[in-house]
Amino acid sequence: MNLNNDSTNIPNFYEKFKRIQDPIHGLMEFEDWIFKFIDTEHFQRLRNIKQLGTTYYVYPGASHNRFEHCLGVAHLSRSLVKRIQETQPELEHDENGLKCVTLAALCHDLGHGPFSHLFESEFISRKRPEVNWTHEKGSKMMFEHLLNKYVDLFDDLDTDDVKFVENLIAGDRTHRSPYLFDIVANKRNSIDVDKFDYLARDCYYLGIKSVFDFSRLMKFSRVIDDQITYYFKESYNIYELFHTRYSLHKKAYNHRVCKAIDYMIRDAFLEADSILKISDSIFDANEFLKMDDTILNRIEFSDDPGLKKSKDIIKRIRNRDLYKFVDEFLVPNDLKDKLTEKEINEEKIISYQNNDGLKLDDVIVNRLVLNYGMKSENPVDHVKFYDKNIPNKVFKLEKSQVSYLVPEQFEELNIRIYTKDRKKIDPIRKCFKELLKEYISNPKTYYNMTN
């Protein structure tokens, strides 16, 4: 074998691909064109947005960012589509389908603001409720801005391809390659590679064990009737997917202390908005490029006297003088229609005070709704399965065909109460209990989690 330095012996393969080492997926391989998108300020901005927002303040291992998550989702999307194309050549594969779905996966989180979901669900929803803004809308704005700024990135993508990528990000199905909409943002049954990556990645960095195996699910997937179906023996693995998601929300994402810090950062943003125009950024991609987790430092080290209230809140976070959890009530199903926001709110709670000096601003009511990804529905009811012996016929599975131990209920409501002033914990808890007595016939059924 001739091992000389003749460059003609080097395969072209090495000129077309680059690799990224990842702790979750190992060596991830991408074509060169992907790096044109990665190496833009739009995508690099994601390095400064924590994947789990304030969870990092409770779980110090949760230091990973949207940047590596998006790379992981792009890797899994590309891998899954390539596998389908190779194992099912009889399908009419979209010529640009692989490229479009990989790009959609890469760019699906471009619209996340500082501290990820906190920006969308706590700050913007409070400051700009009339806009009904979502991070998916933000991703579309940033993707279009990226393409307008770097026209050469279009390469062989035409206008229809760009629209297709945006639809894939939003999960808005079209007639073009319907099964590709099951990959990045699957609104059919909520099984997609976005979850595959963040469940594995979050568990790894949180130090939480998971038995869900996404690699098996990908291996035993098959396109039938224009949708991705799964081998029926993977049904319990799918339940494990949704149970893992629920567990992470229960134990980590919505940890009591994480939520308290969420409210503090939200309030810091609200106080700073008149000066920094944070909420205006959702309408201007150039301003949104400046929006990442470092905004706390911008506020903290600013000399602007108008930011004093915001700075004081951030100082409380630094000194661990946090808003305090007061009490909670896990709402039984028969009370969900009664304990609405109209009935359980800050104003109603303080109305039960007895000269305690409570103000409306002292109380925060958190209505925590946890589910398996499709509200009160069982998402597995929307999954189609196949049998290897009859590979082109799909069917549904009843829970009784999987296990008698799978959940009977798929959504829960937990009402949690916080206060900004730790000295007012006891009177607020007393008021909350008195309010609940109006709806609970047997007070003994109320279990005080703080005792």
Automatic annotation (TrEMBL):
<dbReference type="GO" id="GO:0006203">
    <property type="term" value="P:dGTP catabolic process"/>
</dbReference>
<protein>
    <submittedName>
        <fullName>HD phosphohydrolase domain-containing protein</fullName>
    </submittedName>
</protein>
<dbReference type="Pfam" id="PF19276">
    <property type="entry name" value="HD_assoc_2"/>
</dbReference>
<keyword id="KW-0378">Hydrolase</keyword>
<dbReference type="InterPro" id="IPR006674">
    <property type="entry name" value="HD_domain"/>
</dbReference>
<dbReference type="InterPro" id="IPR050135">
    <property type="entry name" value="dGTPase-like"/>
</dbReference>
<dbReference type="GO" id="GO:0005634">
    <property type="term" value="C:nucleus"/>
</dbReference>
<dbReference type="GO" id="GO:0008832">
    <property type="term" value="F:dGTPase activity"/>
</dbReference>
<dbReference type="InterPro" id="IPR045509">
    <property type="entry name" value="HD_assoc_2"/>
</dbReference>
<dbReference type="Pfam" id="PF01966">
    <property type="entry name" value="HD"/>
</dbReference>
<feature type="domain" description="HD/PDEase">
    <location>
        <begin position="62"/>
        <end position="208"/>
    </location>
</feature>
<dbReference type="InterPro" id="IPR003607">
    <property type="entry name" value="HD/PDEase_dom"/>
</dbReference>
